[in-house]
Amino acid sequence: MPVFHTKTIESILEPVAQQVSRLVILHEEAEDGNAMPDLEMPVKVVSNAVSNLVKVGRETINSSEDPILRQDMPSALVRVEKSAKLLEEASGMLKNDPYSGPARKRLIEGSGGILQATSALLLCFDESEVRKIIRECNRVLDYLAVAEVIENMEELVQFLRDLSPCLSKVSREVSAREQELTHQVHAEILIRCLEQVKTLAPILICSMKIYIHIVSQGGKGVEEAAENRNYLAARMSDEFNEIIRVLQLTSYDEEQSDLDNLTVLKKLQNAIQNKINAASDWLLDPKAVKGGIGEKSLRQIIDAAQKVAERCLPQDAHNINKMCSELTTMTDALCELRQDGKGASPQAEALARGIKDKLGELQQGVLNAVVAVDKAGLQQTAHTVQGRLEQARKWLSNPGQDDKGLGQRAIALIVEEGRKVADGLPGVQKAEVTQLCDEVDGLSRQLTDLCHQGKGSTPQAQESARRLSQKLHELKEKINQAVVNRVVEDFIDIVTPLKLFTDAVMAPEGTPNRDQNFSEKATGLQNFSNRAAKTAKMVAAGGSGGNKKLAEALQSAAGQVDSLTPQLISAGSIRLTYPQSKAAEEHFENLKQQYSNLLTRTRNLCDEATDSGDFIKSSEEQMRKHTFLCEEAIKNKQPQKMVDNTSAIARLANRVLLVAKQESDNSEDPNFIDEINNATDYVQNSLPQMVHDAKAVAMSPTDHAAISRWRESNKALLSAVSQVRKAVQPELPPLPDISNLNLEPTPQSTYFIDKVGEPLRNTPTPNIDGVDNLRPISPQQGGRVSPLPKWARGDNSDLLCQELISNSEQAPPRPPLPAADGAPMRPPPPETDDEDEMFRTAPSSNQPIMVAAHNLHREVRQWSAKDNELIAAAKKMALLMAKLSDLVHNDDKGSKRELIATAKAIADASAEVTRIAKQLARECTDKRIRTNLLQVCERIPTIATQLKILSTVKATMLGAQGSEEDREATEMLEGNAQNLMQSVKETVRAAEGASIKILSQTQGRLRWVRRQPCYSLSDDVTPFCKLCSCTVATGNAPSNPDVNCSSNIVRSVVYDQELWFNNVTNNSYDIASLSLQNIDLAVLSELFPVSNLTVLDLSYNRIENISNGVFANLEAMEELILSNNKLRIIGPDVFRGIRLEGYDYPLRSLRILRLDGNELHTLNPDVFQHIDREITVLSLAYNPFKVFDQQTIIAITSIVTLEELDLSYTQLVDLPQYFLHTPQYLRKLDLTGNQMTKIPETLEDSHALEELIMDNNPIVNLTKETGFPIVPTLKKLHFCNMRVLEEICQYSMSGLENLEELYIENNYALSSVHFNTLVRMDADNTVWPRVKKLSIRNNKLTHFSSAFLAKWDYLVELDLRGNSWTCECENQWMIEELMPIYVGLNVTQAREIKCAAPIEMETQTMYDIYERKSVMGCLDLYGNQPERDGTILIGILIGVLLCIPMALFILYAYQRNWFGIFDNSPAAYSRQFYRAPSLGDDGHL
Predict the structure, then answer these.
(1) Which of 543, 975, 1295, 1428 counts the highest number of beta carbons within 10 A?
(2) The pLDDT of residue 91 is above 50
């Protein structure tokens, strides 16, 4: 699949994708009946380009020394050639017949293949280039590893000669690579690592030099010097390892904190599924090279599984982590064996098989974990304190709602952070924060206990929630205050501790107490560093404002301070010992400079994480505290105390000046800059005077004039600091005191009289009887004054008639006519949500693109799009992305063209968002906000371009869904869409912050007006829609909505008659369906009001008990969902209908009843007595039955109308005898996930069973005895995900004589399926079922017999992928007979049938062999190929023929004693005495 991690790859793929998209559009237009144009010339150009590409690729392969490139690139070249050939064939066919359907199909396949193969080629080459850089990095690491053994200058010089060129080359190549990357995060990491390497390299060399110097002199300090050197070498090694890690990354996911936990888990599960086949291919290839695509896929599967473990339930997490650990160990061992050339050894093959089996277990474990999370409704806590507070507040606002413990877990993490902050505080503050943590923890536990007892909605629980919310707020404020105070205090002076230590190091020899002074200053420096690092970690934990990047930078800086300080002290100790050594002095200066820079960076990060206004305010409070201490010193005549506290005031004032300067430098607003500069000038002028006056007081503590001058100058300094605070953070006007507001106008007010007129104001109440007892209302009278006469103010409407009859008073003046220029402008219509219908309901987790679009829409819908182009463009993107989500899985006519057009429209809207954001950034006066806005918006164009390319790839695959490539393309498209939506959302948030700065100065173009929720409901729509989400299905009336109240209302509201019954029409409101999930009903004891709803969802409510007849009023209800509750017992009258004249009527409309996910062990025999002739679908899945007792059997079999029964995951070992005899209409039975080791015999008792699902049961061998009985009605069988299934034997399915669909998938241990599996012997005849759909994908099969089916051409669907097929003569029938059928059904899948053996066939597919019309060779009994033995036999014969004459010659020579070699006669021994003796080295015999 296409990857876009470099600008070069993206620039090449984009024009290719554009051309492919044009071909797709031509294909769509041809489906409308249009003739295809002549493509001969364009195709010829493409063919020539492909030929050149292939030529260059093959030359690259031949000249490359990279074994991975030589292994991976040929398959991509072959695919390019095949795709070009398909285009040529399509062009030729279209020239003869412009309306040819097969030609159009080949055109699409060829164009899509060229796009993907080009991407694969580019990726192969790019990865090869990356491996070259990594090799250079590894060379540097090798040199760093030997740094510890260099002990003289000659070795150091040689080390420098070797290391310098490598460092220069790595620096150049990594810098060039950084500029190529499209993911800015990766580029920033590489830049940072390179800067660290450049800084550390000279310091490392200097440390090695001083070490050699000390060793050569034999002096002390060797341990410290060695520690310095090893520390610096380790630091550089860490940086290079990080460079290597980032270089290998090809993808980047935006922050996923906004995604639902289940969505992330399913995304990870899909990623694992898509990598399984590549990993399996790698395991089956003993010659596969380490570091190839297959091994990477296996490692990525392990990483994804570990991420699943982080988000799932504890037990599942433990199992997954254990399997991941075992897989990592086994994979490492296999890689070592293959690297040593032992990939084909029995040990390596056994390891490969073990890894494959373990992968199957891991895949099943991940599936079980996702199912468990789905069932439990587990949600992930937020990453930041602010996010956790939001989760906690959501729970506390409605503690009766079951949030699966999310709020409680969030509070626990906040308390944990509070305790971490408390550890670094002084006594009193530590006690306050610790006490608050204890109170919050106690209240949280108390509220949790109440919720567990079902008392979450009681007044006691509400009071606990209110107190807990208050305490949480106090804890948050305390944490923020403590963090700011620590930053102010600990970074008040970062120069003095280092300066004192440096003075101690540089002290000349002979200075008194030189060593003791050094130890004291070193201890002081260590203590200061410890506190600074601890403060930085505290800011990262509690004060980073949810900025993850800033928090990580603070943690990193704190860690470096911790590790660098001991090295600086060691360097100082060496300098102290060798004061004349230039190397020691240079080494100390290098580390001192690095330490100083690190401290400055740490302080700046803390300042950035801390609000400037809060910082200055805290500094001001500290200055006032030191002022009080100065007064105490004056009072007690303590000059030194006066000096110390005055110095603290001066340092605090300098910190205020530093922070103010940072704010001034960060802004481009001239007015803001002037205000800060004026305030800081005042501080700078006041500070020297205060210091001068303080010195005078310290020298003469009794001089009252000096004391008065100091007080005045210190007061002026404090006032100046206050002015700085007000300039940085202007004070808002105080809120009005509500208690002092008077809604009654004063008696002296004449406002209304002036507006309305005195005659009307004093109009008396008319009296028809003529009695003159009327009294005018005087404005001087007490009480509220109204502008209207009494008859208009009173409750009696007859007074209006009386007033109209009376003509005694003059009428009020007529208002003026409209101006001559026409009628006033009509106000604009209110904003509506008509365009947001598709976002009315939350999408399911299996729609990741729709989820991403929904999240963006939820972010932007809070703002009005009027006068805000950015919101309008972002909303348009959300709507287009929702449309794209529908098109991805749509294969209707015109969908390819629509998919490409929608992706292009999204890219255009993305460009508009980027343009507006950049223009806004240019107008923003805050540099930090501007930089942040530019960083988040600059990612959008790259991601949008990638979306267009991926949509084109997906468009070429519509109509071939389900293939491995299609799944991978879909996953990449989904990930890209999520990244794009997340980037746009972050851009909107950053733009709002930028607009604040603009609005305060220039009244910017974008108006950020929050939309007010409104409800335009007609009288005949249920008031539920004011509390919950309502949607209207197609074809339904607007007054008949689907209502979703999940997690939105409290349970006490559910039974409110006003929500169900319309008092105006005297009828119940129309409701199509009602979802009441997650509102913690616990007990259903009240009768549901009368309603005509058809679906009622009460799942996830922890329901333990249901009273009799509570559903009686729901006579139109067709489906009742009681899933995932805590039901143990269901009474016999629970499903009773209304009771009239002593007779219990049934719930006559109920057809579907779902009881899955409860705690049922048994059923009352009469539980379905009122609905036994109505129910057609019953689900009892995920209940721990284990075995059906007689009561349960009676209950289930009493339902005579039952058509579908779900008994999956009920821990059943078998079904009772004759269990299926009574349900005469049962068509579908699901037995997935049970403990059955054989097929239940009662299946033969069924009467109408058509579909059976037997997935995930522990059947090892399916034999005739353990197999299927005679079930003549069964048409569809699922036999998948059997982890231990090894063999399907003959006649094991012979009883399924009318089987039409057979699915045997994902059985990773299944290695044999007998050819007589389906055969039934009928007298003298052999009978096969007429199977139409057959899938045997992802098993361990190597061979498959043509006799498995009688007629393969009956098939309409076939899937053979994912098996270890042996390409030899026994499977030749698959080439000659089956492949033509397969190609006609699905050519894409047919091309994916790979050969796993013999070795020389592993790179081929059966489709390749079919295309070449080749004949496969045969293997002998031992798996060898006899036709290859001829060469060996001839060699043996030649050897034998050569050996016979040589043996005869040697025998003859022996007998003749030739050459004296074989002379063993007595004479030979005698002659030895006459030979001259030889002398030894010493001259003796």
Answers:
(1) 543
(2) yes
